[in-house]
């Protein structure tokens, strides 16, 4: 019995002497929202969206003006001619709407693709940071989901991650 207790004590002693796992967490929302590359992409796509909206408004106003002119001229047309012209306007309207919808989808897809790239860059950077700095685990937290319910302030490496990401992005420019 004494030998079993001695062996168990030795095992517990050895287990307690194992290296402490180095852990930290990153506030993903904070890092991504302040990451300069993301800010630049949002600004670029805001400009593109503004240009698209101006183009869309311009096309809409031109079509509306053309339709108003048709309505004024329609009173002088035969019923058959009015129907024919009305159908032509409906078709033109549908084509314009489809074209604008397609362009808007293209814009959204391009934005999503670039944002996915930003998220991938952040994930890769955190992974490399963890390996380089001897972390066993780096957890993530955000406004929407959280794998960290509590962490000491000293375990929050969000600022170091953000600084490193922004420095790396500046070097790319």
SSE inventory with pairings:
Blueprint: H1 2-17, E1 23-27, H2 28-34, H3 36-74, H4 79-132, E2 137-141, H5 158-172
Parallel strand pairs: 1-2
Helix pairs in contact: 2-5, 3-4
Q: What do these coordinates show?
A:
The chain is 76% helix and 6% strand. With 173 residues, the chain is mostly helical. The protein has a two-stranded parallel ribbon. The longest helix has 54 residues, at 79-132. Mean pLDDT is 85; it is low at 5-17.
Entry summary:
With 173 residues, the protein is mainly alpha-helical. Helices cover 76% and strands 6% of the residues.
Q: What is the overall pLDDT average?
A: 85
The number of helical elements comes to: 5
Percent of residues in helices comes to over 70%
- Fraction in beta strands: 5-15%
Q: How big is the Rg?
A: 31 Å
* Alpha-beta content class: mainly alpha
Strand tally, please?
A: 2
Cα end-to-end separation: 70 Å
Give the biggest beta sheet: 2 strands, parallel
Strand order of the largest sheet: 1-2
**Dominant shape:** rod-shaped
Any low-confidence stretches, pLDDT <50, length ≥5?
Answer: 5-17
* Helix and strand sequence: HEHHHEH
Q: Which terms summarize this structure?
A:
2 strands, 173 residues, two-stranded parallel sheet, mainly alpha, single chain, 6% strand
